[in-house]
Structure formats: C-alpha cells, structure tokens
Amino acid sequence: MAQDSGSRAAPEPPALAFAFELRAQVGAPVEIGQVPHGRRRIVPILGGTVRGPMLEATVVPGGADWQLIQPDGFSELDTRYTLTTARGELVYVQNAGIRHAAPDVMQKLLAGQSVDPKLVYFRTVPKFETAVPELQWLARSVFVGIGERFPNEVVVRFYRLE
Q1: Which of 90, 74, 72 minimizes the C-alpha distance to 82?
Q2: Alpha-carbon span 55 to 35, nearest angstrom
C-alpha cells in the first residue's frame, strides 16, 4: 500500500562538486546538410586542456561534435574525444548534450558569432572510459556539464554528482 507522502518535506537535493573545466579549441563546422532528423554538422576538436581539482589532462586532437540541429536551433550534441594525462594515461569521453536559446541567439551562435553564454542553455552528460585503475572513479561517477560556446572554443565545467 502506498503511503501518503504529501505531508513530508521534500528530500534534500544531492550535492554537486566541481570536478574540472574543459577548454577545447574547435575548427570550422563541416556542414553535412539536411538529413531525416534535422541539419547535421560536425565540429572538429583541435585540442585543449582539462584543469581542476579532480583531473588535469590535455584534449587529444581528432575528436568531434556530431550535431543535429532542428529548424528552431535546438541542438542535440554527441561529442567524442580523448584525454591524456601528464603520465600518458588515456580517457575516452562521450559527452551527450543539448543546447538551445531564443531563435535570434541560436542563429548567431550557429553562424559562429559571439553571444552571451548566459542566454544559451547548454548542458551535457558525459560518460568516461579508461583502462587506468586510478581513474576508474571517472567511469563510476555521474557528471553534468555546463557549457559555453565561443567562435573558436568550447568551455564546459563538469560537476560530479555526490
């Protein structure tokens, strides 16, 4: 039998701990064009850095963001890249996300123009894979990312769900 939970206080939300910030340099988008589910484009990842209290690494050139963009600018993001630590340890990242804003803001953003990041909802949920025992905490944790897109750079701040 279900209990009446209406009289109980809402549970405390889980804490988020800042883990690290990724700064990735990106190249010009490759426009595939209109496909059955939207406009497909691929944004190459040229390299970058990861810095923060939980991880320090570099972004290996060669990753990309496979984007699917709807007519109103709503974007589904599927970003895949590799990180390497100073000791040469490799981490594969698949970072799924969404990005949207008012149509005029999205039009400027998708055209490569600068927009105020506060006007854009850009959130991601990364998954990490690594063979390194000391880095298994990445694969065994849940993270959320808050992103900002600039003309030649993407900045994502990752938070670990405690």
Answers
A1: 90
A2: 38
Burial class from Cβ neighbours inside 10 Å (0-12, 13-18, 19+) for residue 35 reads exposed
With H, G, I as helix, E, B as strand and everything else as coil, classify residue 138: helix
- pLDDT bin (cut points 50, 70, 90) of residue 91 is very high
DSSP 8-state secondary structure symbol assigned to residue 15: P
99 with 149: CB under 8 angstroms? yes
Contacts of 125 (CB under 8 A, 6+ apart): 95, 96, 97, 142, 143, 144, 145
pLDDT at 110: 85
Q: Are the C-beta atoms of residues 76 and 54 closer than 8 Å to each other?
A: no
> Within 10 Å of residue 98's Cβ, how many Cβ atoms?
14
pLDDT tens profile 119-162: 999 999 999 999 999 999 999 999 999 999 999 999 999 999 99
